[in-house]
């Protein structure tokens, strides 16, 4: 399996690039943000619970997100691979994912870290807020999401660096250019596997 993580702050282009990656490498896109928003749209008890966190720009508790992800991954182990978008976001989540994938003998291959300057992130989120309909796309909550990323998610870089899985991609370029940088990294990984 080709299992990739796309990693980066809110607005760095994880969702945008995941769509391109899915088309080129035929992977399943697993966005925990999308899964959680679907629950909110259905107005289930779980959806009402997660909205308390998402609407504030805070992380949803690990156990709730893990249940969503576990069901999806274990139900699709026949896929050619996954692109994990927005997961993991904490060390607890990263360790749980490693355990699950090691058990399935299909570990993470690469963690694609998309790097974008903070003001550009903010501008992109504000641009998207005009038509996204997302409850967390407004100036105050976007600033909080960026801070939560720095405090709780950024430490994962060291976690994956220790596993030698991080590849840094400069995300300050048009979408196609960023995508071709990602492809170069993924194709480089695949070429090494064939040797
Ligand atoms: P989630 O849905 O994962 O949102 P996010 O990480 O905040 O990321 P975004 O969707 O805002 O941005 P993106 O990086 O995907 O960029 P995009 O491609 O959209 O999470 C939302 C919430 O759910 C969290 O805050 C949390 O509460 C909860 N949650 C989710 N996962 C969780 C987890 N694992 N644990 C706990 N809680 C969790 O692009 C953004 C904009 O920029 C778009 O308009 C796009 O067109 C534009 N754009 C993209 N690339 C470029 C480019 N190269 N140049 C110019 N514009 C660009």
Describe this entry's structure for a reader.
The protein contains 9 helices and 5 strands; from the N terminus they run βαβαααβαβαααβα. The chain has helices spanning 14-25, 32-42, 45-54, 62-74, 91-103, 118-129, 139-153, 156-161, 175-194, and strands spanning 4-7, 28-31, 82-85, 110-115, 166-170. Helices cover 57% and strands 12% of the residues. A 5-stranded parallel β-sheet has the order 2-3-1-4-5, sandwiched between helices. It has 195 residues and is an alpha/beta fold. It has a single domain (4-185), classed as P-loop containing nucleotide triphosphate hydrolases (Rossmann fold). Helix 1 crosses helix 9 (175-194). The model has no long low-confidence stretch (mean pLDDT 96). The protein starts with a strand and ends with a helix. BIS(adenosine)-5'-pentaphosphate is lined by residues 8, 10-16, 32-33, 36, 53-54, 57-60, 65, 86-87, 89, 93, 124, 127-128, 136, 145, 171, 174-175, 178. Residues 8, 10-16, 32-33, 36, 53-54, 57-60, 65, 86-87, 89, 93, 124, 127-128, 136, 145, 171, 174-175, 178 line the site of BIS(adenosine)-5'-pentaphosphate (AP5).
- Please state the second-level CATH architecture: 3-Layer(aba) Sandwich
Q: Which CATH class is shown?
A: Alpha Beta
Order of helices and strands: EHEHHHEHEHHHEH
- Overall body shape: globular
Q: On the 0-100 scale, what is the average pLDDT?
A: 96
Q: Into how many domains do the coordinates divide?
A: 1
The percent range for helix content is 55-70%
Q: Which percent band covers the strand fraction?
A: 5-15%
Question: Can you count the helices?
Answer: 9
Per CATH, the superfamily is P-loop containing nucleotide triphosphate hydrolases
* Estimated structural class: alpha/beta
For the sheet with most strands, the description reads: 5 strands, parallel
Query: Which fold name corresponds to the CATH topology?
Result: Rossmann fold
Name the ligand types. Answer: BIS(adenosine)-5'-pentaphosphate
Strand order across the biggest sheet?
2-3-1-4-5
> How widely separated are the two ends?
17 Å
What Rg is obtained from the alpha carbons, in whole angstroms? 16 Å
Low-confidence stretches: none
How many strands appear in the DSSP assignment? 5
